[in-house]
Amino acid sequence: MTTPEVPAGAYLDHAATTPMSRAALEAYVAEAGRPGNASSLHSAGRAARRVVEESRESVAAALGARPSEVIFTAGGTEADNLAIKGIFWGRRRQDPRRTRVLVSAVEHHAVLDPAFWLAGHAGAEIVLLPVDDDGRVDLAALRAELAEHSDEVALVSVMWANNEVGTLQPVRDVVRLAHQHGVPVHTDAVQAVAQVEVDFAASGVDAMTVTGHKLGGPPGVGALLARRDLPIEAVLHGGGQERGVRSGTLDVPAIRSFAVALAETVAARPERAATLAALRDALVAGVRAADPEAVLRGPDPASDDGAAARLPGNAHFTFPGAEGDSLLYLLDSAGVQASTGSACQAGVPQPSHVLLAMGVTELDARGALRFSLGATSTRHDVDRLLAALPQVVERARAAGLVTGGFRAGGAA
Amino acid sequence: MRVLAAMSGGVDSAVAAALAVEAGHDVVGVHMALSRNRDQFRTGSRGCCSIEDAGDARRAADVLGIPYYVWDLSERFEETVVADFLAEYEAGRTPNPCVRCNEHIKFEALLDKATALGFDAVATGHYAQVVTHEAPDGTVSRELHRSPNDEKDQSYVLAVMGPDRLARAMFPLGGFASKAEVRSEAERRGLSVSAKPDSYDICFVADGDTRGFLRDRLGARPGEVVDTDGTVVGEHDGAYAYTVGQRKGLGLGRPAADGRARYVVDVQTSSNTVVVGPAELLSVDRVAARDAVWFTTPAAAAGGDPWDDAELQIRAHGAPVPVRVRATTGTPRRDGSVADDGGPGMELRLTGTPLRGVAAGQSAVVYRGTQVLGQATVADAWRG
């Protein structure tokens, strides 16, 4: 009954969401059957509270944090909002001059949108830190910005690993520069935790976002790890749970399931990372062989220093002359599930802000496709993609000539 | 067959997709995003362009259990339909954007992309029928016919697609005699759009305010309204916003000398002048049209009289009138000659009562009974 389903076909979209692990699903179902509000003082409440606190200790241990630093949230977006808005307001309360928010240009919308919301509603000034061709944040730009405006900076937010192209960011360097000016750093580590070593204390960051459904846990639960001395204001007000920073009745089954999945993922991570990297290398080589025109975006794992510079489970390509939505449809009908990797409103694909920030042209960005591997991925999934790909790309290019603004011969 | 069902988010296209699924086809739903800056919610009777409509289409596809995609055709829509709309009005003509959308978007951009991706046909929720004939040698010919639902019949706006594209089009609602029947089919299948109101307005013109849209996009160009003697009788913000045959919204200060209603009888964009006059000046019985598309060329029997009997329809819901029609090479002129533009043209002579208010730019569709013979764009109309 509690056996999770493996996605049908070749599921190459683990960066969107991962299938739940068996242990996580079992933990969820077991807790969902028990009564108890973790804030209640009676025995049912105490039992629920114990589950939450054990989960908190487990999450902290898995991520190199202290239990008191774990604030459970309803997922990554909420944790990012709490970090950006909460730290902005907390720092500005200490010193009203601190209105600048420094974020990399390739952040997820869960970081960018609250930052720009603050600009529109709370007098924040947003500084988008540029990135290089591989999507890595420009440290010189950060250094210059901090040197010029150190008194005015509320916080810096740079993700651990990019959700589209898998680029790992130099988070420790960011921390070193920011801390020289006493500026706190937030990092969105949602994509990283399942695939590379992430240690909250050792990294030096002041706040870090993690979420359940990218590591074999359930959706709708996550956490913001935040140092106790970090000034942070509540975003959700109410019953005062989670040190008053995040009110709301705790979702005990989700929290327990998340903690189980996280512990499981971290224990399996070294071995899994090696497996994923080998599969990813086969995928990258196979795509390049199937379509020599395909362009790998982000650090090249086939290069000397590239393999360590991106997530082992991520491969991202642009296919010149093809549109991402055509590729997606054709792959889907061939039983291969991938993603264009960019946010869609009502399903209308917009050129990815990540690719544009990396200097990719809008036309090239239209042909983006992200393949992301995870715990359930097999060589068979990769083979199925590679078998379908030549015809898929050919057809998508033919369709691109019709409506994609692409012209025969390449350039439009 | 692999069928792409174009899904606007309305009830007609949802039921059309359902019927395609039930006919055993391998169906994928596609919603066309035609505007870059889409409204979040549907307002009034604009029926295709909001994000809410895209959500309705997605919900219908989910109920039918078919894949669903949004295709962004907004650039192409702007370059063809909207650009043509503006250029035609600016030139003093009266375009039909739904005809241009069928011509350039639904049965060109969408259909060609679908074909390139491996689909055999595009199914839409239009009310029209395709009648197929197979000759003894196996060749198949297709005719476009009116829907039995007179009120909803859309053969008029579909005629522009011509016979080749008709071979890759499916109209599953073609046989439905009433909209109520379609709504009950939607309800029966649990499609939540069953009670959604019909759409009528031009989808890209907010609030149905065509004149306001034209003024925003083309800029105000004040000028004079004159009567047929050249006497100035009023002012306007741009001659382009007027249509031959228009009576309302002229804002004339002085009543006509004879006290009768005045109509726009001519729009002269070169001098930015709107000419008004009595209704009888609008009566025409000769029509010349350009860019003709034929399903069946009149008097196909070679060597005979090129003039054929048919009926002409000039508006989406206009009544057909008896005509003699002939196909020309080059656009016909008033003196009986043809222009040397070389394009396929259409010449029409009304045999019954004259038509009132035929404007250049309108679509002229020629029928015989329920069958569409051809379609062209009005270039000129006069009293012969």
Largest sheet of chain B, if any? 6 strands, antiparallel, barrel
- Are there runs of chain B of 5+ residues with pLDDT below 50, and where? none
Can you write the helix and strand succession of chain B as a string?
Answer: EHEHEHHEEEHHEHHEEEEEEEEEEEE
The CATH architecture of the largest domain in chain B comes to 3-Layer(aba) Sandwich
Beta fraction of the residues of chain A?
Answer: 5-15%
Structural class of chain A: alpha/beta
Note the gap between the termini of chain A. Answer: 54 Å
Uncertain stretches of chain A: none
How many domains of chain B? The number is 3
Q: What is the topology, as strand order, of the major beta sheet of chain B?
A: 13-16-15-14-18-19
| Average pLDDT rating of chain B | 90
The CATH topology name of the largest domain in chain B reads Rossmann fold
Which percent band covers the strand fraction of chain B?
Answer: 25-35%
Percent helix of chain A, as a range, is 40-55%
- Biggest interface and residues each: A-B, 21 and 24 residues
* The CATH topology of the largest domain in chain A: Aspartate Aminotransferase, domain 2
Organism (chain B): Krasilnikoviella flava
Pfam families (chain B): tRNA_Me_trans, tRNA_Me_trans_C, tRNA_Me_trans_M
GO molecular function, one term (chain B): ATP binding
Site (Interaction with tRNA) (chain B): 126, 362
Description:
The complex is a heterodimer of chains A (412) and B (384). Chain A is of the alpha/beta class. Chain A is built from twelve helices and 14 strands. Chain A has two domains: 21-263, Aspartate Aminotransferase, domain 2; 269-403, Aspartate Aminotransferase, domain 1, CATH 3.90.1150.10. Chain A is 42% helix and 13% strand. A seven-stranded mixed sheet of chain A has the order 2-8-7-6-5-3-4, sandwiched between helices. A three-stranded antiparallel sheet of chain A has the order 9-10-14. A two-stranded parallel ribbon of chain A has the order 1-11. Chain A is globular. Chain A starts with 9 loop residues before the first strand and ends in a 9-residue tail after the last helix. In chain A, 53% of the residues are buried. The model of chain A has no long low-confidence stretch (mean pLDDT 94). Chain B has 384 residues and is α/β, with parallel strands linked by helices. Chain B has three domains: 2-207, Rossmann fold (3-Layer(aba) Sandwich), CATH 3.40.50.620; 222-280, SH3 type barrels (Roll); 285-382, Elongation Factor Tu (Ef-tu), domain 3 (Beta Barrel). Chain B has a six-stranded antiparallel beta barrel with strand order 13-16-15-14-18-19. In chain B, strands 3-2-1-4-7 form a five-stranded parallel sheet, sandwiched between helices. In chain B, strands 9-8-11-10 form a four-stranded mixed sheet, with no helix packed on it. At the A-B interface, α9, β12, β13 and α12 of A face β2, α2, β3 and α4 of B.
